[in-house]
Structures are given as structure tokens and as C-alpha cells.
Amino acid sequence: MNNSKSLRPFFIIWSGQALSLVGSAAVQFALVWWLTQETGSATILATASLVAFVPQVLLGPFAGVLVDRWSRRWTMFLADGGIALATLLLAYLFWTESIQIWHIYVLMFVRSLGGAFHGPAMQASTSLMVPHEHLTRVQGINQMLEGGLGIIGAPLGALLLAALPMQGILAVDVVTALFAIIPLLFVAVPQPEKSAEEVLTGQKTPYWTQLRQGLAYVWAWPGILMLMLLAMLVNFVLTPVISLLPLLVSDYFGGGAWEFGLMQSMFGVGIIVGGLALGAWGGFKKRIFTSLVGMVGLGVGISLIGLAPANLFWLAVVGGFVGGSMIAMVNGPVRAILQIAVAPDMQGRVMSLIVSLATAMTPLGLMLAGPLADQFGVRPWFIVAGVATVLVGLSGFLIPALLNVEDGRSAPANRPELTTDQLPIT
Please, are residues 229 and 401 in contact by the beta-carbon 8 Å criterion? Predict the structure, then answer.
């Protein structure tokens, strides 16, 4: 098979999605800044963040079942189209000067809900459109994109705010969304094969049965369970780092907006460099080794930020770069593992469940980190979070089920519908 030819349909869709994400990143910044300027309320901003979390945490597992039941191509089309329509409606409300705070909450909810469907559908489709030997490299490219969005989202949003009214910025987002929507009308997206039960009966498995099957599938697979547990632990300790970073820069290092922007940019630059390296290298043959080594490196980078003396801000910047580059090494192979090891007809459910549980750790981590940082200062959290991440990464090398997660023989024995050609390729 000509791999370059087989990759073309995927990259046509991917390129449109990337352009759409650029517009979304700029709009996200613009909306948050508008709320900040109009209200000056921390409660308003916190509520907006909560609204954006709810669909991913609470509805993710239920959306994952629908992703596996529906056409993944049309799921992405409807998710992107729904977000674009909601954005267009918000632009109209800004244009008519009838905008209210709750309108923005609704848009953020709709965007997050669309993401709860679109993300798993795109990830699950990737494994059917990309040869398995290229999946880690593709995830490296995805990490580069995420790092790039972290760098350009804020300045692009600020530039658009200076040049356009809010309705114009929202219109730009709608236009970029068309680049994601239109290719889905013309590019075929493969569907997973039907389960043996559906082939035998000629009927689609009931929704709630598929939900239970997804939970049972994960529960019976120790390797996937351990992968989920590690993701939850790391998210729990590291998510507050992003929220506490402004305080560390201002209170400990005595820096201002420029220093804070530099730290954020170094994380983004690190993600891009790590994604480039992963895309070129492809990682270790056993992908989980790449993720675990990356996790140790990520912990070292975060610890370096916390351990840097107050008069050596540049050392903290180096820590940010190291941490960012290791984020790509952690996330890219994990996504490739899921795309290879999880049965295609289960990927929507499994990926949604992992995202939901990992995301649920965000508010829990913030609830604990906030009071502790007020009591003991911000710096100790960075040191503890970094050390904890190193220990989590090292402990992964001692867990056989996790190390063998890519091995088809580690799949649950109660999946009789898995045929030889459906087993993971190692």
C-alpha cells in the first residue's frame, strides 16, 4: 500500500480542523477578555470555566457511545456545524447590542458539548485512516498544533480585538469553521466493522447495552485501567500548576506581564519542539516507554520551575521549555496506544471515558491546591507536583499490565467478537 496516498484523506480533514482550531483559540481568548473587561468579576470567569468543563466531565462517556453508534464523519460534521451556528447567533447578538452574560455561557457550553463529540470521533477515525506505523508521528504533529495554538491564540485574539468588533471576531471563527466542515462533505471516513452480535442479529445493539459494554471493556483490561489511573493522577497534580503560574511569576520571581508571557510561550515552544522530535523520531518501539520517559522528564521540568531561586528566573523558563517538550512525549504515544490497542468499535467510548475522568481531576486539584497555596505559598506545589509526576512515571515501569498495554494478548478475554485481523498491530 502507498502510505503517502493513504494518508492524503486524513490530512485533508486534519488541515481543515487545524485552521478551525486557530479561529477557536482566538475567539476563546477574545471572549474571556471581553468578560474580564465588562465585569471584572472572578466569579464570572470561574463560572465560565466551569460551564466549559461540565459537558466533557458529565456527558463525555454518554457521548462516546453515540460516537461509536453513529457515522463518525457526520458526527464531526454536526458537531462543527452546531458550534458554527451557535457562534453565528452570538455574533448577531453582539451586532444588535443585545448580548448578555448568559448568552456567552450558552456558547461556551455548546462549544464544549461539540468538543465532547468531535474529539473522540476524530481520534477514533484517525486509527482507521492512518497506518498504525505512522500513528505516533501523527500524534507528534497534533502536539505541535496544540503547542502552536498555545503560542498564537492569545496574541491573535488580541490583534483581532484591536482590529474588529466582537461580532467580526466571531464571524472570523465561523469562516475558519467552514474549512473543517466542507472537507467532511467530500472525504470518506471509514467506519469500524460491526460486532459479531450485530452481524448475527442484523440489529444495532441498544444504547444502554453499548454503554455497559464500554465500561466492562475498560474494567476487564488492567493495562487500560492503569493508563487511566496515571492520567488522572498526573492531571490532578499538574493542572493547578497552570492556574498558579501567574502568582509564582509575580509573587516569587517579582515578574510582570512580560515574564508571565515568556513562561507561557516557553511551554508552547517546548510542545512544538517535542512534537517535532516525536514526529521525526516516532518514539521507542514500545510506545508506553516513550510516554513514561516523557512523564519523568515532565516532572523534572515542573520541579525545576519550583526549585529555581528567585533571582534565576531564566532557570524557571528552561524548566517550562523542558516541561512543554515532555508534554508532547507523554500525550502523543498515549493517544497512539489507544488508537492501536483499543478495538475500533470501542474507541469512542474508551477515549471519552478517559478524557472525562482526567478532566474531572481538574476542579478537584484546584480545590486542594488553592487553599494549600494560600497557606504555604505557591512554590511548594510546583515542587511537590513535579516530584509526584516523576514518581508516577517511574512507577509505570514496575507495572507489567501497563507495559503490555499494546500487546493484543492483554485484551479482555470476554470479547469473543474480536477477530485476528482486529487485534492490535505491534
Answer: no
The region that residue 254 occupies, defined by phi over 0 for left and psi between -120 and 50 for alpha, beta otherwise, is left
Same domain, 363 and 402: yes
Size (the chain), residues: 426
Shared domain check, 391 and 250: yes
CA pair distance 56, 119, nearest whole angstrom: 10
Q: What is the DSSP letter of 205?
A: P
Residue 104, pLDDT above cutoff 60: yes
- Cell numbers for 185: 462533505
Compute the Cα dihedral for 252, 388, 57, 278 and give only its sign: positive
Residues 176 and 216 in one domain: no
| 178-187: pLDDT as tens digits | 999 999 999 9
Indicate whether this model's pTM tops 0.85: no
**Sign of the CA dihedral 412, 189, 66, 339?**
positive
Q: Is 329 in the same domain as 370?
A: yes
Pair 301, 348 in one domain: yes
Higher pLDDT, 150 or 372: 372
* Degrees to nearest 5, angle at CA 293 with 290 and 298: 115
Q: Model confidence at 338, in pLDDT bands (50, 70, 90)? A: confident
Q: Is 83 exposed, middle or buried (0-12, 13-18, 19+ CB in 10 A)?
A: buried
CA gap 377, 315 in Å, rounded: 19
Q: Detail the DSSP E strand segments found in 218-297.
A: none
In the DSSP assignment, the letter for residue 57 is: I
Angle at which helices 42-54 and 101-129 pack, to 10 degrees?
40
Range 328-333 average pLDDT? 90
Query: Is 238 among the domain residues?
Result: yes
Q: Is residue 201 part of a domain?
A: no
How far apart are alpha carbons 76 and 28 in whole angstroms? Answer: 20
Are 34 and 62 members of one domain? yes
Angle between helices 135-163 and 3-39 (to 10 degrees): 40
Domain total in the chain: 2
Q: Among 156, 190, 224, which residue terminates a domain?
A: 190
Res 316: pLDDT: 95
Domain assignment of residue 160, yes or no: yes
Helix (H, G, I), strand (E, B) or coil at 399: coil
Residue 87 sits in which domain range? 3-190
Residues 175, 42 share a domain? yes
